[in-house]
Amino acid sequence: MGSGAPGAGGAGGPVVADGPTRLGSGGASGPVAADGPSRLGSGGTGRVRWLLCDYGQVLCRAPSPAERDRLAGLAGRDGPSFWRDYWEHRPAYDRADLTAAAYWAEVLGAAPSPSLLADLVAADTASWLHPDGAALAAAARVAAAGVRLAILSNAPREVGSAIDAQPWLGAFSPRLFSYQLGAVKPEPEIYEAAVRALGADPSEIAFLDDRPANVEGARSAGLHAEVYRGPAQFDALAGDDPRA
Fold first, then answer.
1. What confidence category does residue 37 fall into, taking pLDDT thresholds of 50, 70 and 90?
2. Are residues 178 and 83 in the same domain?
């Protein structure tokens, strides 16, 4: 899940197309540009011990239009202006610089009642709890091939704790969230914290995220990172991708 602009796939936000997502086919420091076969499982990456995954729009499906409409409706706001304010303040919420009450007060322009706050948090959270079965099955094949799985996601406390409790994510450990780490992707500190948590060299970590900016940040930290396009990238690590 990403903090920032609409279309980034952040928690509860709309999915607005901003152009095709492209695979970064270079090495850990290469550009995020060229479309082509995944290189995560190729000889160019060396020995990958960990697959570190973004959560939103990688392991889970994006919120449905009905869910997005419900959240905007609860806020009593028109869609475009609501999402603009939602995203403007989201990084601070994801980083735990703002509480849920303070965040929603910024978005709404006034403090919500306790009951409205509870409804907003519940709707926001529920919209990001839809597993992507194909991605999870592909990740299981990676684990079966001996690569360990972990999550690195931009998420506030309320959303992150709900994600962390999902039984279908049991194979991913640790599950790291921005609110715990005090930094958001693509800030360098979050990748440094993730590398420490995994106890690995950055060159031993593959990273998939749906946001190019987050992939660039991971590459700057030395990880083998690609923009996520689909489960075939997992299979490249498992050795099952016929293109690898």
1. very low
2. no
Q: Are residues 140 and 57 in the same domain?
A: yes
Beta strands in 54-136 (DSSP E): none
186 upstream amide cis, omega within 30 of 0 = yes
Find out whether 155 and 11 touch, Cβ atoms under 8 Å.
yes
Rg (CA), the chain: 17
Residue 61 has phi, psi (to 5 degrees) of -80, 155
Q: Can you give the residue range of the structural domain that contains 103?
A: 65-126
Between 107 and 5, whose confidence is greater? Answer: 107
Dist. CA 133–CA 143, nearest whole Å: 15
The answer as to whether 120 is a domain residue is yes
User: Would you say residue 34 has pLDDT above 50?
Assistant: no
* Interval 56-88: pLDDT, tens: 999 999 999 999 999 999 999 877 999 999 999
pTM: 0.83
| Same domain flag for 86 and 145 | no
**For helices 114-126 and 100-108, what crossing angle results, to 10°?**
100
- Paired sense of beta strands 224-227 and 148-153, if any: unpaired
Question: Could you tell me if 112 and 93 lie in one domain?
Answer: yes
Q: Is residue 3 part of a domain?
A: no
Residue 244 in any domain: the answer is no
Q: Within 10 A of 76 (CB to CB), how many other CB atoms are there?
A: 10
The reply to whether 111 and 195 lie within a common domain is: no
The number of domains in the chain is: 2
Residues above pLDDT 70, as percent of the chain: 79
User: What letter represents residue 164's amino acid?
Assistant: D
